[in-house]
Amino acid sequence: MKISDLSVQQKKTVLIIIGIGVVLLTALIVAAMLMIGGTDVKPAGGSNTILQDSSVPETEDDESVLQLESIYVSDQTVSKENSTSGNKIPVTVESNSGTSSNSGTGTETNKEKILVGGYSVKDFGAKGDGKTDDTKAFKSALAAAKENKATIYVPSGTYKLTEGLALGNVTLAGPGVNNFQTEADKMPILLIAQNSTNALTLASGAVSGVQIQYPSNSTSQKSAIYLTGPGNRISNVKISNAYQGIIFDQLSSSSNPGRSNIENVVLEGVRYLGMKVTNTWDVTFVSNVSVTGTDSEYKSKGIGLWFEKNDDVRVSDCVVTNACYGYQFSERNKKPTGEETASTWGTFLRCKASAVKYGMYFTSYFPDKRMQPVMFNDGNIQATDRAVFIEKSGAVLTMTNTVLTSSGASALKIQGGYNVMFNSCAITAQKGNGAEISGGMHVLFHSNTIKASLIGVKVGGYAPSGLVITDNTISASAKVNDTTTAGTVKSISGNK
Questions:
Q1: Which residues are CB-contacts of 350 (< 8 A; sequence separation ≥ 6)?
Q2: CA 303, CA 323: separation in Å to the nearest integer?
Q3: Spatial distance between the Cα atoms of 291 and 190, rounded to a whole number of angstroms
Q4: Within a domain: residue 351?
Q5: Is 367 helix (H, G, I), strand (E, B) or coil?
Q6: 438 burial class (0-12, 13-18, 19+ CB within 10 angstroms)?
Q7: Does residue 490 lie in a domain region?
Q8: Number of domains forming the structure of the chain
Q9: What is the pLDDT of residues 38-72, one digit of tens each?
Q10: How far apart are alpha carbons 348 and 315 in whole angstroms?
Q11: Which domain holds residue 467?
C-alpha cells in the first residue's frame, strides 16, 4: 500500500508513531553515552580548560615570583610540563582518595585539579608527620624549584625543620590561603627545631598559606622570616612563639627589601619583636598584620612594629596587643655611611593598639636631626601609660581622627619633635593630663576632644618655639596650663 492511498487520518497516525519512535531512540542514545562517558560536566572551553585555583596567592608583576595554576584533567591523556620553562616536572594530584604523583615523564587521567609549574615537597620525600626531619626534602625541592623557576607546594601536615631555608626568589605556598584565621587547622605547619639561623630567608621570594611554629620562644632565636632583596611577598601566614617574627634588612647596597608586600599575617606569642621594617626603598605595603605577646617580658620591653629607614611605607589595618611599644619609630643607626640618620616616611591608616605601655613611641639616635613625616589617621590606641610618647627627637607626626586613651598616665607626652600636630582626635587620660608638652619645635593641637582627670593640656619646661592650641573641646580641672616664659610664638584660643 502506498502512503498516497491512506486517508488523512491514517497519515496523521503514521506521523505520530514516527515522532514517538524518534524521541525514544534519542533518549536511548543519551542514556548510553552517560553510562559510557560518566556524568562529569566539563568547564566551558573544552576538556583542558585552565582554571584559576582559589588557593593560589596573588603575586607581584615581578617575574621572579611565579603564580601557581591548576588545570582540569579530563578522561583524556594530559601531559604535564613546566609552564615557564617547558621542562617536564613532578606533579602531585590531590584527590579525596589520596595523593598520587609521577616523575614528570608519564601522564595522568584523574579528573582532578593539579599544580603545574610547581613541586610538592612530598614528591621529594617529606613526611609531614611532625617527627621526621623533613629539612633534606625541602632543600631538594628548593634546588629543583630554583632551577626551573617553579613554586614549592606544601600540603597540610607538620614538617619538622632542623636548618634554615634560603628560599631566594622561590614561592613557598600552602593550601590555607583563603581565610587564614578560620582555616588555620588546614595550614601546613613548619615546625622550627633550631635557633641558630633564620627559619626562612627570602630574596625577592614569596611565602603564603603556611604556619611557622616554634616549640618555645627562646631568647636565642633568630627571625622567623628574614627579607633581603626587593619584591618579597608574605601573605596569609601565621607565626607562633617566635622571639622575633619578620625582619627586613639590607645585606648590601643592591639588596634593599623595598617594593615588598606583607598582608594577612598573624604573629602570636611573640617574645621580643613582631616586625621590623627598615632599609626599604620605593613603596612597601604592610596590611592586616596582628601582633600579640603573652609573657611579662614582652609586656616590659617587647615591640609590635618597628620602623627605621623607609622611603615610603604604607601601613593599614594593623593591630598590636600586649606589648611595651606598639609602633616604634627611630632612625637607622647603621651603614651605609651618610644614611645613618635616615628614618621612615610613612602613612598609617586604621591601625590599632591595645594593652600596650606606649602606643606610638618616637626615639632617636640623633635628637637634633629632623625625621621624615609620619601620618597616622583613623586609628585607635589604648595604652596603660602613654598613647603617644615623643622623646627628644626630630619627629614629624600628624595624627588625625584617632582615638588616644591612657588608663594610667597622661595620654600624650611630647618632649621633642620638629612638627607635631593633633587634629580632630579624641584624647582621654583617665589618670593624668590630656597632654604634656615640654619640648619640640612646632606643636599644634586643633579641634580635638580632650578629657582628663587633671589638666587638658599642660605646657612647661622647655617651650616649643611655635605652639598652637586652638578650638579644642576640653573636659578637665583646667583646660590649658602654660607655665613657659614669654617670647615663644603662641596661639592659645577658642578652647571650650
A1: 316, 317, 377, 378, 379
A2: 6
A3: 19
A4: yes
A5: coil
A6: middle
A7: yes
A8: 2
A9: 443 333 333 222 233 333 334 333 333 333 333 22
A10: 5
A11: 324-496
